[in-house]
Amino acid sequence: MRITNNTMNNAFINNLNKNLKNMQKAQEQLTSLKKVSKPSDDPLLVGKILSMKDNIKQNEQYNSNISESQGWVQTQDTALADVTKTMNRIRDLIVYGANGSLAQKDRDAITDEVKMKVGEIKEILNTNFDGRYIFGGQKTGTAPFEEGVDGKLQYVGSDEDIEREISQGVIIKLKTNGGDITTIKGEPSPDKDQTLGDFLQEVVGAMDKGETDKLSNDLLAKADKFIDNILRVRSSIGAVDNRLEAAQERNKSENINLTSVLSSKEDIDIAEQYMKYTMMSTAYQTSLSVGAKILQPSLLDYLR
User: Fold this and answer.
1) Is residue 187, in this structure, part of any structural domain at all?
2) Contacts for 292 with CB less than 8 Å, ≥ 6 apart
3) What does the entry give for GO biological process (predicted)?
4) Which one of 4, 97, 114, 227 has the minimum C-beta count within 10 Å?
5) Residue 110 belongs to what domain range?
6) What's the domain count of the chain?
């Protein structure tokens, strides 16, 4: 093949442009600290980077769900601790009221305190977290407990617990059904349940009538059952809290791993990239120097 001056000139300019383009790309990477700045740079790599970012964003949402759920269950635990204290006080009042030698005024005072405790329990069980009631089942917008016209404590929430997704395909239930807290299954008979509202009304009635035997036997035993039931629910909420804590640790670890993988795909090695840029810059300058020696002056004048 015949080599002409034009052939040499064109080859030189093409190679010079390639070197300049490579140097420009390296310079852009050093400026942005990213391997790619647009999809056309490397479509496959850009696709992987976008997928990783979606995974990180989803993982952050799971972390938000976990943190919110932890605040929820910790508020529940505090509330049930207060309910337990109140129920223990009611139990003490039942024991006092079972004393047959009490004067009527003392018995009336005990009855009044029991009635006051009903309102106290209602207020505690109507605790809310971030504007949502924690013991209303899935009805979080309205107070789940109320006192009827007769002063009876009633649950008006839903029977379904709230669910939260804490990881890909992993759903956890928050114990929000307040009926589980205030209901003893199979009492007073296997086919009938008793609520805390029914029990407290029985206590008030027995106090008014001076039924000391009923107070010291049947109602004292029921008080223990309701306290045990509250402790059972509190224990299950504690188990949920433990699971959430473990899930949060896994989530943090996964987020660190995902971020590390993303960085390896997206971010440049500054020292390595600077070395490449320096080599490309040297190659470009060398190309210009060599071209000045081998090309005709007319072309060099054109390049200047």
Assistant:
1) yes
2) 300
3) bacterial-type flagellum-dependent cell motility
4) 4
5) 55-260
6) 1
Look up the pTM and report it: 0.74
Q: What values do phi and psi take at 291, rounded to 5? A: -60, -35
Q: Which two tokens stand for residue 232?
A: 């059972």
- CATH, residue 114: 1.20.1330.10
Q: Which residues contact 218 (CB under 8 A, 6 or more apart)?
A: none
Q: Is the distance from CB of 166 to CB of 66 less than 8 angstroms?
A: yes
Give the Cα separation of 196 and 225 in Å (integer): 10
Residue 145 sits at φ, ψ, to 5 deg, of -120, 140
* Residue carrying structure tokens 């605040």: 71
Give the other-Cβ count within 10 Å of 58's Cβ. Answer: 14
Compute the C-alpha angle 87/90/93, nearest 5°.
155
Q: What is the largest CA-CA distance in the chain?
A: 129
Burial of residue 72 (CB within 10 Å: 0-12, 13-18, 19+) is buried
Residue 218 lies in a domain: yes
Q: Would 40 be classed as within a structural domain?
A: no
Q: What is the pLDDT of residues 140-194, one digit of tens each?
A: 999 999 998 788 999 999 999 999 999 888 999 999 999 999 998 877 666 678 9
